[in-house]
Amino acid sequence: MRDRAPRPANRGLFSSLARGPDGPATAGEADIASECEGDALTGTAARYAAAVLAGALCCLIPLAVPVHGPLGGPVDWPRLGLLAFLHTCAESLALGLPTPCARLGRRLLRRPPREAREAVRALPGRGFFPVLFAGVLLLAPAAAALVAVPGALTAHVPAPRRLRRLWNAAQLAVAAFAAAAVYRLLGGPHLLFGTHFPTAALGALAAVAVFCLVNAALVGVMRQLCAARRARGTHPADLARATGAVVLPALVQGAGGLMVAVLWQGPYGAFAAVLALLPLSISAWMFAQGHREAATHRATVRALVQAVEIKDAYTRGHSERVGRAAVLMARQLGMAEDRIRTLHFAGTLHDVGKLGVATELLRRNGPLTEAERRAVEVHPVFGHELVRDLAFLGEAREGILHHHERLDGRGYPAGLAGERIPEFARIISVADAFDSMTSTRSYRRGRPVAEAVVELQRCAGSQFDPVMVTALVAAVDRHGWQPEPPPPGGWDGEVPDIPLGVPEPARRVPGPGGRISAGGTP
Question: Which pTM does this prediction carry?
Fold first, then answer.
């Protein structure tokens, strides 16, 4: 087979609204920033980002120009400064990262910076927002917007840091301003200062809801603008799921913000409010550790896939696409999100057993003998042996072992049939075949998606589970499918355009100078 050049790693400008295994939203994986695919913002997306930044600056104008009415009022600068400081430091502490003060101290002492750790992105449910929500309840809208700015501008973010920090600061400031404005218009401060419960809690709930909705709208528009140049943008259902993943944790942290605000108004003032942040910080820190553990699992999977790709050129991109197709199918089937994450691991690692197969057999372009074919067909068993001690994979291990079984019992390695084949294996089998048919090899051009779908439907009931085939067809119709692109410069030589079901010609092997010459037998 032709050795394909690996595609360059994607370096987006912003972190995604909801980066799940397949790109669209995943519950628990929602992010509060938006991401554009590519190295820089251009066109409409750039103008939109500039407009949001301008809107954030407008929100801060009342700090310098007195504004009367419910949206104005005197600025309590000591309270604002303390809240901004607490938000900046508590965010870093809750995520297990050095605070800006600690980083500044190490610089002043000329000590080398600590080794950077993965930053857990700040968002309701994954970051630490009770202080920001307390500012929404205690301060005027402009002051509440300013509370979010220092923490966003000093946050741990991937490169390009300046652009990410400006975007995060702008969208958080706009969302905080809108939430504080709604809270004041509803008479929230009067109820809070008079400790009228549960009426005061209703105003706080409305403020948190507005914060989430404004932020989701800002992020969603950016994501759609960035996705506009692709064939299909983000599906509305994916955005709805991403928004839901943010709103529920935000409501929990909103309750924490209400507690901080109430204690601040009590006899012990800011001291009691700061003490109340301790258990909230511990809770957020534990959540961050869980996130880092999940990141370690993903890194383990990536390392195994990269090892397979080095050995078998065909799997470059194939494993990732199979994992993505499997996730799309699972969502179509209504599978729970925790199982979807495990399924993504299974689809991505389905060919990891090729590490135990002779490299010469994997790279051979000519036909295999019966003994060699059996040696290749044992790769699901090798894969299961390689990952069986990775407890976090769970039922993914059975999916890896049985992804070459057939519904009629004529598959391998165990010859299972029907419902005896694990659900993960039945999903991966369809996803694997679909990507194989739509991918170009050195001896056969990838077939159109429509033709691959017809072939899957023809084999449904014998080789594939009809339910899984139907799920794939529906998912592809909903989300679209981008087959593997050719390497830079295109394929060397002419790749035969052979319809499915027609015997393949003799496979071609690289000749002198990289040219493709005929070799082998059908």
Answer: 0.61
